[in-house]
Specification:
Structural class of chain B: alpha+beta
Number of domains of chain B: 2
Strand content of chain A: 25-35%
Number of helices of chain A: 12
Distance between the termini of chain A: 108 Å
Number of strands of chain B: 7
Largest sheet of chain A: 9 strands, mixed
Helix content of chain A: 25-40%
Largest interface: A-B, 29 and 31 residues
Structural class of chain A: alpha/beta
Order of helices and strands of chain B: HEEHHEHEEHHHHHHHEE
Shape of chain A: globular
Radius of gyration of chain B: 23 Å
Number of helices of chain B: 11
Radius of gyration of chain A: 27 Å
Oligomer: heterodimer
Shape of chain B: globular
Chain lengths: 399, 359
């Protein structure tokens, strides 16, 4: 008995050794990739994928009081590491990265996926398919399109955070709602849009800019979110700027704040809506499909530079003019989408869900029908009041 | 020790101890049965119980178990505790000892019995259950909300004691995707260029904490303080500065050590302090599945454990709602109208019908 127990006591720990530990990895041996940029290489004879990794370089100063240097602006460039890897398939490109990565490439903490313009124009469907089925990549990854050349992106430096990816992530994560000039779309939304009939993908796009434009102190190059990139099928077809994006997101129901300005008495008034309701309707008149967007806005006058007591009639007329202005702006955005041929608004999807029998007929050549679809936009802007704490400090008799 | 409550304690003289209990329970049903134990030492052992309340058959069972012992003498009451346990090889004592007459008397009122032994200032309470890991005498002198909060804290403390080092090792060496990105980055930076893998580091630190604790117990109080300062502060600080261990690991070990002291009875805290090592090993070898398996084995063992026929996990399993009133939370005293169902079956009613409040 005692011998058996002793034997068991010896065997059990020995059994633990071969069984365990096979995928144990120390945290300090991981290369935590922050951001991946997908592109196509244009140098070689054969088409190759180009995958760039942006990672934070580990600084030994993390362990409390041990690290001395490394603080201050000079070290900023050293905290980021960008590396490019090529391969005829995506998997090959990612695996080949281990040839030069001093640590185990770990993608589960990746936060941003970027598509270079060149690749996006050729089509992102295959890459999206790869990413969605990849075990490590999370669907919560933010998605961005990079306008311009990728080398520009990799040489730009963050202005505020430690790494470029960190900076982009912070912009995407925190700034939403303050004007709604972009929507932080993620891989989940993108993949669904790629897969859904009558719905084209879209994603925010970034562009590099020289910081001399926004800051006088440094002349380095950084990145900025410029608007929304529109796809047709899986191919990039064009861009919406920030203002157009605001209208686009309003129509998609993803944003509920924005600004319109209007003139009154020769001065500008700024109207900011903070509640928006969009109702989408569909009518069919002798085979012709009309789509209606009924938009209701509610907001405040935030900026008035002249002295006035807004009367009921004045407000009524302002509301009417604002509605008309918003209508025109929204219609312009819709027409821009139509011009590019991208159904990122999901008009096809709307028809598919409301009138499946009609969708069956037109889905075959949807992209030729799409620009012909009648889209009517009806805006009712409501002014709830002014957001001014006090009357504007302007002399009554100024002019 | 309690902040608010009786300061009296049992002494080495069994006659004094008897009178301490008798002073608290002035009831003719309180009985002491006298036995002698040890062929050579002839130590006086008393079994105390309240007739009419005590669990049926308990006294006979105790007498039977003590009567079976054939030994020359007992060096400690812990030996007696161990010898009358249902399951010898379990890591848990199936009885518990107290030196507080008020605690002992409240156990008597719950239908339990006490074993007093001459020359030892402790009495042994049988049967014991998992509830005793969370109950402290002070719970009944503070308001029920405060007491409930403290009991929940002890429950959290117990779980931290057993699981935290294991979880830390498992998550940081196997399941990196579970960690928030920022936390992973800061920890992996702190671990940059450290010599030991995280499992070995934790094992070394936990063992050195145990050594420190053991050394501190042996020493007189003024010297003990010096040891803990040199040990904990100086060595800890120097180990981090020398880049032998990472600061997060020290935090985990310290937190575990502090949490282990939230369990009020030594029988509970000793067992759980020891249990964290198997959990740590399982975590180091298998990650979270290892911890889950270890935890399951522990639960299965606890579920099978009995103390004088009473399931150790009661009132969790077998479930008894009325006993939960005095388990992880403590309801107001006027709501505790029944004795624990397992031990107080023979006389379940503790309070009559009455209503709290003015006329």
């Amino acid at each position: 008995m005692a011998r058996k127990v002793l034997a068991l006591l010896a065997i059990i720990p020995l059994l633990l050794l071969p069984g365990g530990c096979w995928d144990r990895r120390e945290t300090e041996n991981l290369l935590l990739v922050d951001s991946i940029v997908f592109g196509k290489s244009n140098t070689g004879e054969t088409e190759q994928y180009k995958v760039s990794f942006i990672t934070a370089r580990p600084s030994s100063g993390g362990g409390g009081q041990v690290g001395t240097g490394g603080e201050g602006g000079a070290a900023q460039a050293a905290t980021q590491w960008e590396a490019i890897s090529y391969g005829s398939t995506l998997e090959e490109a990612i695996r080949k990265f281990s040839l030069r990565s001093p640590r185990h490439v770990y993608l589960a903490h990746n936060r941003i996926i970027m598509f270079e313009e060149g690749l996006a124009k050729e089509g992102i469907s295959q890459v999206v398919d790869f990413l969605v089925r990849s075990r490590d990549i999370r669907l919560r990854n933010y998605v961005l399109v990079v306008k311009g050349h990728e080398p520009d992106l990799l040489t730009s430096s963050p202005q505020f955070e430690d790494t470029l990816a960190g900076e982009l992530f912070s912009i995407l994560e925190t700034s939403i709602g303050e004007g709604d000039y972009y929507y932080p779309s993620d891989l989940n939304i993108l993949a669904q849009d790629v897969l859904t009939n009558g719905q084209d993908p879209w994603a925010p796009f970034i562009e590099t800019f020289s910081s001399a434009q926004t800051s006088t102190r440094s002349t380095s190059q950084s990145v900025i979110i410029k608007g929304t990139a529109l796809f047709k099928g899986g191919r990039l077809v064009g861009y919406l700027d920030a203002e157009e994006t605001q209208r686009f997101l309003l129509l998609k129901g993803l944003s509920n704040s924005g600004i319109y300005d209007i003139e009154s008495n020769g001065r500008k008034l700024s109207y900011r809506y903070q509640q928006a309701k969009v109702k989408r309707r569909l009518t069919v008149e002798d085979g012709r499909v009309n789509v209606y967007f009924d938009v209701k806005l509610k907001g405040l006058l935030e900026e008035i530079h002249f002295y006035t007591n807004l009367s009921k009639t004045e407000i009524d007329s302002l509301e009417k003019r604002l509605s008309a202005k918003a209508e025109a702006a929204l219609l312009e955005t819709v027409n821009r989408c139509k011009e590019l041929g991208s159904d990122a608004l999901g008009i096809g999807r709307l028809i598919h869900s409301r009138k499946p029998e009609i969708w069956k007929e037109i889905s075959e050549n949807w992209y030729s029908i799409y620009p012909e679809i009648g889209i009517v936009i009806d805006v009712k802007a409501q002014i709830a009041g002014t957001a001014l704490g006090s009357k504007p400090i302007v002399p009554k008799t100024s002019e | 020790m309690v902040v608010k409550g009786a300061r009296s304690g049992f002494v080495e003289n069994i006659r004094v101890n008897r009178s301490l209990i008798r002073r608290m329970i002035r009831y003719p049903g309180l009985k002491f049965e006298r036995l002698n134990l040890g062929r050579i030492t002839n130590t006086e052992v008393n079994i105390a119980y309240i007739d009419g309340i005590v669990m049926e058959g308990l006294v006979e069972e105790i007498k039977k178990r003590i009567g079976k012992l054939d030994i020359d003498g007992l060096a400690n009451f812990g030996m007696l505790q161990e010898m009358i346990d249902d399951s010898t090889f379990s890591i848990f004592h199936q009885s518990y000892s107290t030196e507080r007459p008020d605690r002992a008397c409240s156990c008597l009122l719950e239908g339990r019995a006490l074993i007093l032994m001459d020359n030892f200032p402790f009495v042994v309470v049988v049967p014991s259950a998992i509830t005793h890991f969370f109950q402290s005498a002070e719970d009944y002198s503070s308001k029920y909300l405060v007491a409930s909060f403290e009991r929940l804290l002890r429950f959290v403390g117990l779980n931290i004691t057993v699981l935290l080092p294991g979880l830390y090792v498992a998550i940081f060496s196997y399941h990196h995707e579970m960690i928030p990105t920022e936390l992973l980055k800061s920890i992996s930076q702190a671990r940059e260029q450290l010599p030991f893998p995280i499992f070995l580091e934790m094992l070394i630190l936990e063992l050195s904490f145990e050594i420190l604790r053991e050394a501190g117990v042996r020493l007189p109080r003024p010297v003990g303080q010096a040891i803990s300062i040199v040990g904990a502060l100086v060595i800890g600080q120097a180990a981090v500065a020398a880049r032998l261990v990472s600061p997060p690991s020290i935090i985990i070990v310290a937190l575990t050590a502090i949490a282990s002291f939230t369990i009020p009875i030594p029988e509970g805290s000793d067992a759980h302090r020891l249990l964290r090592f198997p959990v740590l090993l399982a975590a180091g070898a298998f990650g979270l599945p290892g911890i889950i398996t270890a935890w399951l084995i522990l639960l299965v063992h606890l579920a099978g454990l009995r103390s004088f026929g009473v399931p150790y996990l009661s009132p969790v399993s077998p479930f008894s709602l009325s006993d939960w009133k005095d388990f992880l939370i403590r309801v107001p005293s006027s709501f505790m109208k029944k004795r624990p169902i397992q031990t107080g079956k023979s006389n379940i009613k503790r309070q009559g019908r009455w209503k709290q409040g003015g006329e």
